[in-house]
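User: Show me an example of a complex going from sequences to structure tokens.

Assistant: Sure. Here are the input components:
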Amino acid sequence: MAAGVAAWLPFARAAAIGWMPVASTPMPIPPQDKRKAQDGLIILNVSGTKFQTWRTTLERYPDTLLGSTERDFFFHEETNEYFFDRDPDIFRHILNFYRTGKLHYPRQECISAYDEELAFFGIIPEIIGDCCYEEYKDRRRENAERLQDDEEMDMSNDVTPVNLTFREYLWRAFENPHTSTLALVFYYVTGFFIAISVMANVVETVPCGTLPNRSKEVSCGDRYALAFFCLDTACVMIFTVEYLLRLIAAPSRCKFMKSVMSVIDVVAIMPYYIGLVMTDNDQVSGAFVTLRVFRVFRIFKFSRHSAGLRILGYTLKSCASELGFLLFSLTMAIIIFATVMFYAEKGSSATKFTSIPAAFWYTIVTMTTLGYGDMVPKTIVGKVFGSICSLSGVLVIALPVPVIVSNFSRIYHQSQRAEKRRAQRKTRLARIRAAKIRGTNAYMRYKQNGLLIDSLEEASKEAGQALVVKAATPPFESQHHHLLHCLEKTTNHEFVDEQTFQANCMEVSVVNKAGSRSSSLSSSPHGLGSCCSRRHKKKSSFSPPSTNNQELSTIQIRERPVSNSRASLNAKLDETVPLKCDESYITPSMVSLSAPVVTSADEDASTTTAYSQSNIVRVSAL
Amino acid sequence: MESKRVETVSARVDAAAAVSSTDSVEDELELSAVRHRPEGLEQLEAQTRFSRKELQILYRGFKNECPSGVVNEDTFKDIYAQFFPQGDASTYAHFLFNAFDTDHNGSVSFEDFVMGLSILLRGTVQEKLIWAFNLYDINKDGYITKEEMLDIMKAIYDMMGKCTYPVLKEETPRQHVEVFFQKMDKNKDGVVTIDEFIDCCQNDENIMRSMHLFENVL
């Protein structure tokens, strides 16, 4: 029931007096209005913009935030108003909903901002009025598509899972040629061979001069029959191999075989095999010639290589009804005009309009404004109807064309938007990454500063002086950093930034290759190695899932001698080292171990291993 | 004085209607542009038994639903139908409309609305009974005939809709009318006059009690 009508409830109840005299049974007791709430004005302060309304207006919808006691949480005693720290522009629409019972969606607002406000105030979006509902749903769908696109990108591009089976790997290589160089090479090779094959088919038919013992010209195909046959064979070999590989790699073979592209593939290579099988029988050679026509379908294999072609095909598919209408109306018009022309020209002598089907040709040529001129009406009536025919032809063809064009334009722009989103995604991810690195660096600085301040405090306490603290970080940041620090202490690991981590990985793998003699070292770097190979996408080595997963969970705590011959990569940590000489130093890398020891590339590997052998204490991680 | 004021109000509306009666298309535009403004708050306060605040609340609700200031019969039926979604409230709303539209000009203004409510919610039992009698007396001739009563009864039962328990039968309204007439029609002349009606109702405890039912509605 609309809220506005609720105001008329007293009237409806009063009018019920009219039933009383005719009532056959006594009436029930009316409900007691327990809280005789004063209908007062409520002030709603939304980020400084003051809205006022009656209390009863808000209470029309008791299952929303404003209509229930939930709003008491936002009551501000000092100013005797309800304060909400939200967007006042969107709040205007929400308040209007209480007033009029209809929720509107403003077109210029962002859909996610609007949704958030609705969710905050406890209003379900389904009650948006009819006037704005379509727009709202459209925008919501676009937003969802965008999010879904992002997710798909994430899933397909980011992680190269180690444990792909060969089959899955093959399928991925076929679908996204950019994943590996081999796939890319294969992609271009097939494209090249498609082009070669199509050109060969075309050149085959060109007249190539005369043979010495014949008088008439022969086509190139007949003259160099063997060459063309070899070329054809090579192309078909490649296509067959490609098709079989795709068939093997497809996750769902039935679905793959029913897909359009595979049908095209089959149709492209079948004529060759049928030609091989068939003998030079005269009766079937005619059919064989027909089959050669199907070789031209190889050109459709290019649609895997061209997105524009795919869009065109998709457009035609989606405009099927318009095309059907065009065809139907043309057929109708053709039949009508052919009949008329036939009967109009029946009288004239030596006329070409021998039958209605014969007149079809004239009608089609005229309606499409081709006008070959091989069939021309001679009678006046025929000419009159012929002109009407050509005029109407223009109209009938022009009508469905804009629909098809607009469909194509819409789909094309959609794909362009997807491309743009993909391109922007890279910059967006880069931005996110940069922000993360900044955060990590800030944290590192905090830690250094913290320890520095600690030492300074100690020093100043000893010296008996007060410590002057420099301009501190804002309280939020310092609390956040303290939290991260607590986490580090809990897990006994430390945060490092990405470069340091990757550098550590590289160094470890270097040492690994150098042949670590120490058994204790062998397992852990290997574990690191496998984790690094996950990070390094360039490496195409899909190392088998190592048994070192167990080792990965162990960490190695070792005594850290004060050694200044560390590599510059750990320079930051170096500064902190002298302050904590007597504490056991926890290895800084997230995934265990030997990083600090092996980062010194200049150190002798043997001494490293010896050192690590002596000082390794294995502790299971939490 | 009341009638005079009512006359001036209706004269105003009539004048507006007369001016625009020339052109049919412009007619609708003009009529819809006519905004009816109610009498001042003090006058209404004097004429009804509502307090100032109550009048304010009533007017706000009224104006919200009918921004033009008057309710025509279709809007009235719409509003009333929203309270009875299962059945068809249009016939009863029609009778109600006629009962509220005391000056019979085809629209219920705020004054009519508030007058009617004043009687129903704050009036004496006598006034309420007279109002009910007016409601039943469709042609306002001072007598309730069986046909009029049957119409009213059917309208009331229509509001119930189809899904009732026990199932509504065709002759239920008629039987109800018979019962009513047996009770009300003392001299058995086939019609119920206002005195018979009031007398009978005042002797019936149930009806007396129910008259006070909706007093605290506002």
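The lines above are the inputs; the final block is the predicted structure for all two components together. The CA atoms of residues 120 and 128 of chain B lie 6 Å apart.
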